[in-house]
Amino acid sequence: MAIAKAERLMNLALCLLGTRRPLSKRELRGSIEAYLEAGSDDAFNRMFERDKDDLRELGLVIETVENLDGDTGYLARRDSNRLPPITLDAEEAAALGLAAKVWQQARLAGAASGALQKLRAAGMPEAEDAYEVHSALEPRIPVHEAAFEPLMLACRDRRPVTFDYRKANAARPEQRQVEPWTLECWRGHWYLAGWDRERGAERVFRLSRISGKVRSRAGAFTAEVPDVVTVRETVESWAGETATRTALIRLRADSGYPLRARAISVRELGDGWEELEIPYGHGLDAWLVEFGPDVVVTEPADLRADVVDRLRAVAKD
Predict the structure, then answer these.
(1) Residue 77: which region, alpha, beta or left (left: phi > 0; alpha: psi -120 to 50)?
(2) Distance separating alpha carbons of residues 15 and 19, to the nearest angstrom
(3) Do 116 and 100 form a contact (C-beta atoms < 8 A)?
(4) Distance (Å, rounded) from C-alpha 49 to C-alpha 78?
(5) pLDDT value at position 317?
(6) 42-48, long-range: CB within 8 Å, 24+ apart, which pairs?
(7) How would residue 79 be classed by pLDDT, with cut points 50, 70 and 90?
(8) pLDDT at 238 over 70
(9) More confident residue, 136 or 166
(10) pLDDT at residue 106, as a whole number
């Protein structure tokens, strides 16, 4: 549905930009396939008015012109919609090139590549690709969750959503009604930060725990969207990066290297086990569960209990 609307908006924009005289609704309907398929005049009029408002919101200047016969026409003059010259230095061009390489999804990669081609055609300087010339490594952001794309669109369009979400310590998912703010990638996992309507508070959801389809809801947001820095700090805290104390864990030798990278101290215990002291913050229990039988929590007791509860919930599935 999102792709069909985007195509319809693009076709309408091209028609309005490509004409030298105002086009009537009748002429526009006959030129755009999606409008021809509208079931009635009322359906077409509603669709056209929404599309016109959306294009104006995106920045397209659309003029409404009335001729001598009283008929209304529409056009978008090129001189009113011309972008200023693009001025990017070599470092800025390199940053854009790197950003275009990050996305692993085919659709996102195509969009990024197309955007770069347009910028280069408009005069963006060519930048040396350090990752291609000097290194065998290539930056990637993996996106495997089906919920990513609908949530990305909902964040962009400020549309509330509903989805089924299973907490790590729950056996079954429950429906959540959320006003999505932003998506953040943390330690290889995607998180959604937003306003949970039923709980009346901000929450962070891990996309891998969303089951079924993400459904958009009508209506506006009821809570104020915070600035980007605040949202990122919330994701960081809920993802377990804000440590308030430390924990002791037993870790099997030659395993759990991400844990070892964060360890404050390491002590050999023998029999293939080591004791690590690691920072303890919100979300650490969920992270430790991912290492399965290679990790045993020694202290504190509340962290140990949380890990056991999560393991029991997984065993019930």
Answers:
(1) beta
(2) 6
(3) yes
(4) 21
(5) 58
(6) 47/8, 48/12
(7) confident
(8) no
(9) 166
(10) 45
The whole-angstrom separation of Cα 11 and Cα 185 is 34
Give the pair of three-digit tokens for residue 181. Answer: 């703010």
Which long-range CB contacts under 8 A does 95-104 form with residues at least 24 apart? 96/124, 96/127, 97/127, 97/129, 98/131, 98/139, 101/131, 101/138, 101/139, 102/139, 102/140, 102/141, 103/141, 103/143, 104/140, 104/141, 104/142, 104/143
Exposure on the CB side of residue 282, measured as CA atoms within 13 A: 10
* Residue 150 preceded by cis peptide, ω within 30: no
Q: Which of 183, 181, 184, 178 is nearest to 161 (CA)?
A: 178
**Higher local confidence (pLDDT), 266 or 3:** 266
Nearest-angstrom CA–CA distance, 51 and 28: 12
* Per-residue tokens: 199: 């709980």
pLDDT tens profile 100-136? 665 555 455 555 566 666 666 656 555 555 445 444 5
The answer to whether the beta carbons of residues 207 and 189 sit under 8 Å apart is: yes
pTM of the model: 0.50
Give percent of the chain above pLDDT 90: 21
Q: Which pLDDT band, with edges at 50, 70 and 90, does 241 fall under? A: low
Distance CA 139, CA 52 (A): 39
What tokens were used for 280? 């303890």
| CA–CA separation, 74 and 76 (whole Å) | 7
Q: What is the maximum alpha-carbon separation in the chain?
A: 94
